[in-house]
Write a structure and sequence with these properties.
The complex is a heterodimer.
Chain A (H helix, E strand, L loop, with lengths): L3 E4 L2 E4 L5 E7 L6 E7 L6 E7 L5 E2 L8 E7 L2 E6 L8 E8 L7 E3 L3 E5 L1
Parallel strand pairs in A: 2-11
Antiparallel strand pairs in A: 1-3, 3-8, 4-5, 4-9, 5-6, 7-8, 9-10, 9-11
Chain B lengths: L8 E5 L4 E6 L8 E7 L6 E6 L4 E2 L4 E4 L5 E6 L8 E8 L10 E6 L1
Parallel strand pairs in B: 1-9
Antiparallel strand pairs in B: 2-7, 3-4, 3-8, 5-6, 6-7, 8-9
The chains are: A mainly beta, B mainly beta.
């Protein structure tokens, strides 16, 4: 199947700093990528939908100024957690799909963010 | 909110078939049923999806009832590596909403 690569897989940062997470579709073009967050023992929660060449659409309750999303090309979307705090510590996961509807989404391996 | 209902947990003996049920009584006519699984600390892995016909691939089979209000994912010969959380999702294919899923434990 198609491959989505997420980097880094694990990051520890100090409170107040910013962290960038990359999501790449390796062998297909994705006009839409999705960003999820998962807290321990909980399910994935959609944070935002990232559209190539346009502004991301954020879910209710997700601060767009804190979680900056850039989707500059058909194979790369980035999520930047700005001014990170310990409560931002979580497992962040991206997904990407082919441009046509009713196809499966492919997920990255996730990024474990720990803010100390 | 997720539009599916799954049992929170299930056990299955190694080598036996695992049958994971999912209710989706409010599914609309053009929504597909997708199944993913998540092994601890990894991203979700696609398993299978279908609209109304039964589907089979190298990983599993998907049985969808005629009224499309429920489905069953079948892992024909479960192994210890199939221990994971299994998510049933209904979607047009552009927005995947994850519920709590079913935690499947394959026992030796």
């Amino acid at each position: 199947g198609a491959v989505v690569s997420q980097h880094p897989s694990r990051v520890i940062c100090k409170s107040g700093t910013s962290v960038k997470i990359e999501c790449r579709s390796l062998d297909f073009q994705a006009t839409t990528m999705f960003w999820y967050r998962q807290f321990p023992k909980q399910s994935l929660m959609l944070m935002a939908t990232s559209n190539e060449g346009s502004k991301a659409t954020y879910e209710q309750g997700v601060e767009k100024d804190k979680f900056l999303i850039n989707h500059a090309s058909l194979t790369l979307s980035t999520l930047t957690v700005t001014s990170a705090h310990p409560e931002d510590s979580s497992f962040y996961i991206c997904s990407a799909q082919f441009t046509r509807l009713n196809t499966e989404a492919f997920f990255g391996q996730g990024t474990r963010l720990t803010v100390v | 909110d997720a539009k599916t209902t799954q049992p929170p947990s299930m056990d299955c003996a190694e080598g036996r078939a695992a049958n994971l049920p999912c209710n989706h009584s409010t599914i609309s006519g053009n929504e597909y049923v997708y199944w993913y699984r998540q092994i601890h600390s990894q991203g979700p892995q696609y398993i299978i999806h279908g609209l109304k016909n039964n589907e089979t691939n190298e990983m599993a089979s998907l049985i969808i009832t005629e009224d499309r209000k429920s489905s069953t994912l079948i892992l024909p010969h479960a192994t210890l590596r199939d221990t994971a959380v299994y998510y049933c999702i209904v979607s047009h294919g552009q927005n995947f909403v994850f519920g709590p899923g079913t935690r499947l434990s394959v026992l030796p």
